[in-house]
Design a protein that fits this description.
By secondary structure, the chain is mainly alpha-helical. Helix content is about 70%, strand content about 5%. It contains ten helices and three strands. The radius of gyration is 18 Å and the shape is elongated.
Length: about 220
């Protein structure tokens, strides 16, 4: 694994687990020392994290961890619950055989990742699973709007809440069954339950998370 990828994953995990607190200033030299690498991979990792919506940079070029509050998460999930079940319902009758085959393949891969506790691997497969569905809805504008909602925290819930991996796999299995049956109503309901379950778990985790000392990062 490249040094930049190692730095990116280490910093992302530290942010999502609260080891780097919301609003905390990120000093590249200090982070490089803790990770055990040079400053260059850290700089590149921070740029990726900025694109992910997990860190932000001010006019002086200083990076800070984006603060996520339960209220803001609730508002974001309100919009997800309006759009993503609707996209799923539209996709139910439009998914082609090769797309259904891809969803089955992704579901198997996600189950293996969950059983192995590989949250980082799960994140990538989970996003592909969802957007294989949304991409079949026949409305590119709707897909782009959903993509914007996935910036930042939502796609990374498996890293924040690794105990939710098995629940997510079960949800995906039910969703896949409804899509294979071409049931628009059933698929939309399964997606709604899936998103609502993630929302409740994430809001509870954010409310209970203590502010941790940054000295514990990347231990």
């Amino acid at each position: 694994m490249r040094l930049e990828e190692q730095a990116y994953r280490a910093l992302r995990r530290a942010i999502l687990r609260g080891e780097l607190a919301g609003g905390e200033r990120l000093v590249q030299e200090e982070l490089a020392g803790r990770i055990g690498t040079s400053r260059l991979p850290v700089r590149d990792a921070l740029r990726r994290l900025e694109r992910d919506g997990l860190v932000e940079r001010d006019r002086r070029g200083t990076y800070r961890v984006v603060e996520w509050h339960p209220e803001a998460v609730g508002q974001l999930y309100d919009v997800r619950l309006l759009l993503e079940p609707a996209a799923t319902a539209r996709a139910a009758g439009r998914l082609r055989p090769r797309e259904l085959a891809e969803l089955r393949r992704l579901h198997r891969a996600l189950r293996r990742a969950a059983e192995a506790g590989e949250a980082d691997t799960f994140v990538d497969g989970n996003q592909r699973f969802h957007f294989t569905i949304y991409g079949a809805c026949g409305n590119p504008r709707l897909v782009r709007t959903i993509e914007a909602l996935w910036s930042g925290l939502p796609p990374l819930v498996p890293v924040v809440l690794p105990d939710q991996l098995s629940r997510s796999v079960r949800d995906h299995g039910e969703l896949l069954r409804q899509l294979e049956a071409r049931s628009a109503r059933g698929a939309a309901a399964a997606m709604r339950r899936h998103i609502e379950g993630a929302r409740q778990a994430l809001e509870a985790a954010l409310r209970s998370r203590p502010r941790q000392e940054s000295e514990r990062v990347l231990a």
